[in-house]
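Can't paste images in this forum, so I'm doing it all in text. The chain is below; anyone willing to post the predicted structure tokens underneath?
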Amino acid sequence: SISQNSLDLSLPFDVQSVFGLPLHPQTEELFSEEEKTISLNIMQYLSNFIKSGNPNYPLTYSRTSLGESLPPWPRFLPHSGGDNYKEFSAGFPNYKGLKAGVCSFWSDYIPALQISASKLSSQMMPEEGEDGTADISS
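Text version of the structure:
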């Protein structure tokens, strides 16, 4: 059985941050001040998104201001160079093409395979005669 006060820190840092684990009294000593700030900022983005549908607005999630506005969350725009994403680290930089090389199998190979299979199947289909029946003599 799992005791109520046991801690599972095997979760990824972004999940821990969303739920404020770096700020919890039982675990706060395990995290740096930078990680606590990152957690507050992630919760602010999430709260803004829940309230307004936009992680950039409103700029504060509570009556207590963090004293500075967050770097803008990028709009999701499909782009040939990769989609926009935000890195959860100090400064919250925006980038494009997260793991684009790793995903190339799905983004490059599979569409090429589908086109090739489509061409092959159209070549193998028997042509219809003038009367609408398949001509299998060729």
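Helices lie at 13-18, 33-52, 104-124. DSSP finds three helices and four strands in the chain.
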